[in-house]
Description:
By secondary structure, the chain is mostly helical. The protein has helices at residues 2-12, 15-33, 39-59, 61-67, 75-117, 132-150, 157-181, 183-188, 194-198, 200-224, 229-251, 256-262, 266-276. Helix 2 (15-33) packs antiparallel against helix 3 (39-59), helix 6 (132-150) packs antiparallel against helix 7 (157-181) and helix 10 (200-224) runs antiparallel to helix 11. It starts with a helix and ends with a helix.
Amino acid sequence: MQEFFNKLEAFFSFPLYTGLIFALPIYFCAMLYGVEFAVEFFLLSYVVGVAIYSFNRGTDVKEDLLNRHQQNKKAFLCFIVISVLCYVLAVIFGLLDGGFKLVLVLSFPLIMGFFYSKKVGPLPRFKEVLGIKNFVAAFCIAFLGSFMASFMGAVEFGVVVLAFLYVFVQVFIDTVIFDIFDMAGDMRANVITLPLRFGKQKITRFLLLLNSLLLFWFGFCFISGLFTAKYLFIAGFGIFYTYVCIWYFVKCTNKRFLAEIFVDGLWIILAILMWLL
Length: 277
């Protein structure tokens, strides 16, 4: 039974699942915008997500061997191969589907993902700079989700920025929660994260405050009537869902497997609710 759960946990931390989490904000943003959803853009974003996450796992040997005890050293080469293939596919199909403008949108997260995971010359990896790792991860997913969805129809820039802010805050909180889970391994790997620098208690208060800012976001969007109302209320549900995740998983740091289902799974839940409507 323990072997079954280990395999199940490995699946939820595998790039194919994480790529889905990377791409689902596009569906979320498209529904908020009230535009017709285009599957091809979703698939392109999925491939980009798999490429970025695979490259990070392939270069994260030291940290993963400490934080993920089931990780096999031979798997790191496999992650690099998957990453390169996905990079190539994203560029080729991006050019065929939307031309150079679409490739630019796709390339930005890919480039950021490279500098996130790889040290270039004297520059440190983004993930080794305090707070930058969380900012870059959240920015890439929010940028791709909000701007790729805007290709599906006529959407004002200000509306795209508001959708970007929602996704950015949610993903930023997500990454910091997992940094709390990884505190022991990151300390041994000499990777200084926000929880290690400021302590779990202060970071928890910060996450709660950050999530509370989305309540003002919700109020502004509702009064302004910028988004489709029924989908806006699902976004509001996501705010309260994140409160629960912060409260529970910061206390239960031995529940990483559940966190990978429910914290990362926020976008699956929101997408299902929007689809049902």
